[in-house]
Amino acid sequence: MNLFAEILIAASLVISGIFGFVGSYGLIKLKDSIQRLHAPTKATTLGVGGVLVASMIFFFADTGRLSVHELLITLFLFLTAPITANFIAKAYMARNLRPGELPDSTGSCGWSVYDDPPEAVQED
Amino acid sequence: MLNKLIPHPLLSLTMLLVWLGLVNTFTLGNLILGTAFGVIIPMVTAAYWPDRPKVGRPVKIVEYFAIVLWDIIVANVQVAMIILFRREAEIRSHWIPVPLELTSAEAITVLAGTITMTPGTVSATLSADGSCILVHCLHTDEPDAVRDGIKARYEGRLKEIFQ
Lengths: 124, 163
Fold this sequence. Notes:
By secondary structure, chain A is mainly alpha-helical.
């Protein structure tokens, strides 16, 4: 493995370490659940991403073959992280907020956490 | 006939590519097995895909992915800066309702995912009729600019892709 590849791998690992740390630190620092949600959904993406990039470069430099497992991990992460965040946000809204504390929706119905969809309203 | 056999060509292709990625080696056997998965799984799950979104313009999709990927990196740095260098009292969070012009469920899902992954925003919920999405912004002084940014940067492009 040549020096250039080693430098790239080391740099990716350090970057991922920094962002992973900042993401975790955000969990302590920010003041309520909905703010804390921002730290793991974003700062950690680059934290995991850096490790994956380092892994791809390592296997490419070591074996000469492109490894695609890392791309799949990225794909699955991008699919699952927003959904988890959305669930946590909804749980937070249902537990801690009243409808009046949020801005009104611009449509004819309220937010789905508090209001039923139009069909269900008509059935009543 | 072909429609019956491959009810969802995009899903079939995705199954094949994900399978090849999972085994991480390209051989004829894996290609055949992946194709078999790509045919069988969409057939079995066809009942769960009542409307297939029309996805067009591959160039636009690639462009969209590139933009989102770049924005994710920028978002990471921005959020890290806010966490590290702003005092707690100085972080002004906002709830921002964003009216939607997208109608297909798949397009809205992609938009919500994009909002969560990119600059300082998390998509929280939809309005009950799906015409408006509620976004939480970690720190901004101009909520309207964030809303317009989301509409111009992501929704406009998704509208071209999904219609």
